[in-house]
Amino acid sequence: MEKLIRINLLYDFYGQMLTERQKKFVELYYCHDLSLGEISEQYGVSRQSVYDTLKRSEQSLCLFEDKLGLLAKSLEAKDCLRRALSLLKSGSDSDIQKAREILSELIQAQES
After folding, report:
1. pLDDT band at residue 111, thresholds of 50, 70 and 90?
2. Angle, helices 3-14/47-68, rounded to nearest 10 degrees
3. Quick one: DSSP state of residue 28?
4. Model confidence over 57-67: pLDDT tens digits?
5. Higher pLDDT residue, 112 or 18?
6. Can you tell me the distance from the alpha carbon of 58 to that of 30, in angstroms, rounded to the nearest whole number?
7. Cβ-count burial of 70 within 10 angstroms (0-12 exposed, 13-18 middle, 19+ buried)?
8. For residues 22 and 10, is the Cβ–Cβ distance under 8 A?
């Protein structure tokens, strides 16, 4: 997965766990596409400070994902839903039964 997309997804899941400064820098850099220089000017800090804050933020987001796995679970659930939808579109009895099984497994996984 492309780094930009991954960081944005991780931020969606875990952004509230970052400091206010980390949240702001991640939003400006990854969501609003500001450069390190633009952010450093806006906040009156060095480019290196912005870079270090972003690196620590990325590490924190990845650590949260390693520990909690919410992004992986979400992507897996989406994949299951896509497969079930594809099976339902075919309309055959066996495919409908497979789709039911996939959806049942997904519900059980979400409940545990």
Report:
1. confident
2. 70
3. I
4. 999 999 999 99
5. 18
6. 11
7. middle
8. no
Token digits of residue 75:
């992507």
What's the predicted TM-score (pTM) here?
0.81
Residue 50 tokens, joined: 């912005």
Location of structure tokens 């789709």: 99
Distance set, CA 25 to CA 1, 17, 34 (Å): 22, 14, 9
Sequence-ordered strand ranges (E) for the chain: none
Query: Phi/psi zone of residue 91: left (φ > 0), alpha (ψ -120 to 50 degrees), beta?
Result: left
pLDDT score for 1:
65
Q: What spatial distance separates the first Cα and last Cα of the chain, rounded to whole Å?
A: 27
Mean pLDDT of 13-40: 96
Compute the distance between CA of residue 70 and CA of residue 68 in angstroms, rounded to an integer. Answer: 6
Q: Quick one: tokens of 95?
A: 């495919």
Distance CA 13, CA 70 (A): 7
